[in-house]
Amino acid sequence: MNKNVSMKPLTSLQSWVSCKILPDNNEGPITPDAIYCPGRVGHVAVCIRDELFVWGGYYQNEQWGTVYCKKAEVWVYSLDRDRWSRYFPRGAGSRHSSGSCSTMVWPYWYVLCGYLARGYTNIIWRLNMLTCTFESVRPQGDAISPRDKTVAWALDSRIFVLGGYGSVPLMCHIWDAEEDIYVREPMIEEDRGWLDQLAAFDTLTQTWALVETRGVSPLPRAAHSAVRVDMAVYIFGGRLAGVRMSDLHRLDLQSFTWSGALACNGDGPEGRSWHTMTRINEKNVILMGGYSDSNEILDDLWMLNVESLTWSLLQQHTQMPRLWHTACTNSMGDLLIFGGCTNNILDIASPMESSGDVLTVRLEPYSLERLSMHVLWKSRPGSWASWRSLPRNFRNWLEQREKAGWEMNRMIYRCQAYSMYGPSLTQLSVLQPGQADLINKSIVDIVELELEKQKDSQDKSTVDDSGIPYVQ
């Protein structure tokens, strides 16, 4: 893991720069949605170096109800530069969807399956991270059945997909009637249900194939989590029919042997779906939030040591509940949790509330280099003249940080990131709520002062040289 704060971001490539959309007030006041990534659920995300890339999902619109996020739009967040950037990559291939899964096979970010306006899908598209170009991927031969709320991970050139919820498999889909299990959801007219199938998509041959495994495999499930740690993948939770499970399974990626439900040390998390489980360092993974078997939105934070198979409760109540969010670890060890639903998503009497905040989890202190760079930025009025004497990579970081400020062209400031666990973000030059309030108040004061000046100027223009006002 590269923890150099001054490394060059991927979006500094000219291919990304040319696809950047800057706020423009030529057509009226700039709205916050043009500056900050709108809240959403059911999206996908990935971290490349220090940047968080976000695509897809949906949100609740006051006028139109449930609305898909723009399919051609990718948002990128940098914690250290304290900003969102919006991009419209070239090409085509993506469709409006939610509940997709994604993974990296460099230089491509693959997005698979999901739910479209017309139903479940098994489509695949990818984003070339070097050229900033969308590409549609058309598999050769039969594909898996349409589904959403599945999980994916990559090994070399293959992408593995496990489980999910979707349409009944047909003759045109890859399916082993003797080994694969499909549990149809009762009490509904449509044929849809939960799968236990493990399939792999070969990105070189662009073909799907079933994966032969040994051992006791997990039951069918959807909205579960999967995290790869070296040559093993860990599966936790998910929903099957009316039950949200709390079992942990391991798949050995060398022998493709399932462990069966693992016996762990310590009390573990309760059963859940729509949660995340993400690797944060060499031996620990973090589990966050989700939806419980008692229909409650969860805000607990757990750590699993995969070497000792020990669960540790980091925080019982973070006061930041989330379900159907994303969680990715950047190159400096920050776990970045974005989006998700903050109320009961299945309560039809209340509109869904989605979050646009970034929550951070960190298990170790910030590096001295990182803290020093942020001190230089915060003290820039007095240190600016000395920037030219710094090493080039540090100077470039400060210049990028400065450019991020004036590019935003914003008339309203928001705190975008909140520390959920670990060192406070106040140690970095990341805007916090109190600071945002002060800046916004100063902006209002300046605007009001300008309006007063304009009013005084207009009042004076209604008086002639003799001091007698014109008749209005």
TrEMBL record:
It holds the Pfam family Kelch_KLHDC2_KLHL20_DRC7. It comes from the Eukaryota. Keywords: Kelch repeat, Repeat. PANTHER family: KELCH DOMAIN-CONTAINING PROTEIN, KELCH REPEAT PROTEIN (AFU_ORTHOLOGUE AFUA_4G14350). Gene3D superfamilies: Kelch-type beta propeller (2.120.10.80). The keyword Repeat applies. This is Uncharacterized protein.
